[in-house]
Amino acid sequence: VWFQRWVAMAQEKFSFRKETKLKIKLLILFIFSFNIQSSNLVLDFNNLIVNNFEFTQKTETNSSTTESKGKIFRMENEIKIEITEPSKELYRIIENKIEIYDYDFNQTSIYQIDENNGYILDFIINGVKKADVKDLTNSSFSIKNDDNDILIKLNEDNGFSLTYIDNMQFKNIINFQVIK
Description:
By secondary structure, the chain is α+β, with helices and mostly antiparallel strands. The protein contains two helices and eleven strands. The protein is globular and about 45 Å long. 9% of the residues are buried.
């Protein structure tokens, strides 16, 4: 009798250990597959971001929605962002500064890009770091700025969108489409 109990206890222990090992293996597999999925989606985004784009930005204010349109061109040492609607502006990003040309008012300004004003510019220029990725799905992920989350959604048609709340607490949705 005691031998049968001992065998039963040994089998239970073995079964428990086997089950625990299986759970650990499944957890490791889940974490690994999450990292692969995360890596692939971020890699896809980072590969996509090096293209030239047309974009439409919708900003939802308290009482209305405004829309801007433009293009982004990548060159060897600079990025040009041309706003074509509703006004005409040109932004030239060269190293750590941004030059702004407002054609409607015939004005030019130059600003330094730093941590406080360059977060979205940073990942448009350099791509997204995998460590910054949060809330991953099959086609989207978010990254956290100091105050806000920025949702990035990849589209099937060689484009992506950004959704975020700006410093004026307005919702912004920017749709980017690769220029062919």
